[in-house]
Design a protein that fits this description.
Layout: H1 4-13, E1 16-24, E2 30-35, H2 40-46, E3 48-51, E4 65-70, E5 76-78, E6 89-98, H3 109-124, E7 127-139, H4 161-173, E8 178-183, E9 189-194, E10 197-198, H5 199-219, E11 223-225, E12 239-247, E13 250-251, H6 264-275, H7 277-284, H8 290-293, E14 306-308, E15 315-317, E16 330-332, H9 341-357, H10 386-394, H11 397-423, H12 428-433
Parallel strand pairs: 1-6, 14-15
Antiparallel strand pairs: 1-2, 3-4, 4-6, 5-6, 7-9, 7-10, 7-11, 7-12, 8-9, 12-13, 12-16, 15-16
Helix pairs in contact: 3-9, 3-11, 4-5, 6-9, 7-9, 7-10, 9-11, 10-11
Length: 438
Amino acid sequence: MYREEEILEIINKEKVHFIKMYFTDIEGMFKSFTITPNHVKSALRDGIGFDGSSIKGFGKIEKSDFIAMPDRSTFKVLPKELNPSLDCLGAMMICDILNTDRTPFVGDPRYILKTKLKKLKDEKNWIFNVGPELEFYYFKNRKTPEIVNNCSYFDTSDSVMFLRQKTVDILLELGIPVELSHPEVGPGQQEIDVKYGPALQVADNCQIYKEVVKQTAESEGYYASFMPKPMFGKAGSGMHIHQSLFEGKKNIFFDKDGEYYLSETAKSYIAGVLKYAKEITGICNQHINSYKRLIPGYEAPVYISWSNSNRSALIRVPAYGGGSENGTRIEFRSPDPSCNPYLAFSVMLEAGMDGIENRLKVEEPLTENIYEYSGDKELQTLPCDLFESIQYMKQSDLVKEAIGEHVFSRFINLKERDWKEYSIQVTQFEIDTLFPLL
């Protein structure tokens, strides 16, 4: 945690000209405003008031005043490569949102996750570690999904490697650890994996990551998209989330004698996530387009199941952990990178902890390709569209508990509005197939 004096000293020494203050709305969109160095001291002490009436999920016109309170631990000097058109250096901080009486705002997604993690620490002395794998596409412009190349998974002739590497370099300069990067399955699709760590820090890193990816692409004349399914017939972009629970240096999920090296606690956690999978899908896959990715035939999971290594399962236990304690974790494969990471991490943790608290038993893992499954058991599936997802979520006491009444009700209202608007659109598919005939 930086002290106030350290931040002021860095700003003065590095000749920082502006400081961007970031926070997140309930759909996971990063919002920001900019202050000058002269206002940093007062901002650090008192926060900065703003009108939240135009921020999704925040206030209404009659009650819209909020305070953005910078979290000093998130202070970072921004590399010049992020703002090549500016002949000056900037910095950033992520803010917590307060009411005018300086109490935490219950609609702040970051506060929601912080509350869940504090409860976990206070009651169990556990830490929730996550490692997201965010996929995205590079396109030639933001108007149409025009591909930049035909490279696919791990191709060596990657024409945009320079752009991906520039992004990695900036992330590292910002102190965000990156484990690997590579071309993904789709043409021009990419993956840059941020190292696992405590959930709040990683959620912050996810938000910064997406900002860096998009700004870096734009600076080179490209457009980066985290849209779950930007092109028909091509691979969608996911955000597989590796997760584990630690007590100090002890991995609660690890058992050297357990099946797949999993403890009974880990299996109960898996059972909890599977039990509530339909209810939390609305948070982890929050857009209409999200469900164009969750279809059979691609690597995105559809069936509610778990397995070892099997990528067609909703939850898998990665085999490349090699039986090591630190490497043992589970991977939840349905979320996509358009989700709000603070809320997604919160509902996954709530579901998993419900499984642990109630000692739920997980069913036998499915080892075969589930898309070609021929067994006797009828497999449950994830919701097929946003409408179905919201129906499950509306009935979910678990999701309401995980994200609070304020966000729960506003999120549902937003998504119902999205579905209504979508439902009355006349699509190009209808024009192409029906207009010439009817």
